[in-house]
Amino acid sequence: MVYDDIFEWEGWGGQLKLANGRCRLRIYDLNRSDNLDVIHLRPILVVASDLPREGMLKGEVSVRSAAGHIATVISRKFHIDPARMQFVEYIPRETYGKNNEYVIEAVFDAVDFSWQDGLALFPRTKALEPSLAAFLKEELEGETGGH
Predict the structure, then answer these.
(1) Which helix (H) or strand (E) element contains residue 86?
(2) In whole angstroms, what is the distance from residue 6 CA to residue 22 CA?
(3) Dist CA 8 CA 64 (whole Å)
(4) What is the distance between the alpha carbons of residues 8 and 43, in angstroms, rounded to a whole number?
């Protein structure tokens, strides 16, 4: 893991602060893995997840709503080549019900963009490749509450 913290981004609304927000951000460099038998075309996994609702501030937007903007900011701030980055939206596993008897499993969505002039545009969401989803599930399942 290269980075694990709450990440803040400024929106594009100037003084109105439109589309600003915060998320839990984790960045993994798969090339630093012990398993050098596998070569990853996009070895930088950028995993973003919304903060719990009670942790969001007024006016903040979700990761899904601002995925392209977040990916653009992360690429610039961390000097990540977009061609080597896989952006992932992570929705942690949740339980609900009187005795937490119902479970909604974690979701790992890969988000691909069309990159133009350093901007991540036209987000397209799909299921993350199974081996990467298994890797992330193993990495994240020990965390309390998934956040």
Answers:
(1) strand 85-91
(2) 7
(3) 15
(4) 23
pTM: 0.84
Q: Which amino acid is at 55?
A: G
Q: Which two tokens stand for residue 117?
A: 């002039």
Cβ partners under 8 Å of residue 129, min gap 6: 110
Q: Which residue has the tokens 């309390």?
A: 144
Sole residue written with tokens 């019900």: 97
Q: Which stretches within the chain are classed as H helix? A: 67-77, 130-140
Question: CB-based burial of residue 51 (10 Å sphere; 0-12 exposed, 13-18 middle, 19+ buried)?
Answer: middle
Q: Are 27 and 9 in contact (CB under 8 A)?
A: no
In angstroms, the CA 97 to CA 123 distance is 34
Which pLDDT tens digit goes with each residue over 61-93? 889 989 999 999 999 999 999 999 999 999 888
